[in-house]
Amino acid sequence: MLSIIIPTLNEEDYLPQLLASIKKQDFSSLKNSKDKQGYEVIVADAGSTDATLKIAKKYGCKIIGGGLPARGRNNGAKVAKGDLLLFLDADGVLPDNFLKNTLEEFTKRNLDMASFAIKPNPKNAFESFLLTVLYDNMIVALEKVLPHAAMGILIKKELFKKLKGYDETITLAEDHDLARRAARQAKFGIIRSTELLVSTRRFKKDGWLATGIKFFLCELHMVFIGPVKSDIFKYKFNHYKESKPIKK
Question: What's the number of CA atoms in the CB half-sphere (13 Å) around residue 12?
């Protein structure tokens, strides 16, 4: 069985697209699960004040309390029934056959954890070029040396438990940290057969250059100093709408 876990905070504009794209996926390879549909969707909400929870209920999601992304994902994993966990950001979209292609490759390559190349949603040639050059090519090239995983992560629940989940003390790039810890004791890979569609709203709001520099400096911090556990990079979880402070 597959458990899809989505941390949210005021995502009424984006969550419907993701949930609709999940509904369209081919889950036939999971039909042997005790659960007839073979999957569940868990929304770990950090206190949304818009229609996020109403939308999640409409799509039959299991709703639990969240917090910052790492805590929300960990909380989701605690109640997950699946032996496979798929962590997604609320503003992502799954292209057709995403799940079928992913699971087939995941199994064929005997992976324990995987992440994905990304493409902008909606389509934009310039943004696609930037993401390909600045992220996709890099994560494939460094797959065996310095693992990266963001916006979409598929991992065996057994391994996730062994790693004790996401480190909730990390303020930025906790997903990359999870991938690097996983790669030390299991098989990690970047899926080649499909890509994840993502929103570029953060790049547009904060600026492509500023955002790129921030993540580059974060990478240097992780390599030479260690995981980022201070607020040096001023990361905000969904800073696109006004909301109450999130409990850490």
Answer: 10
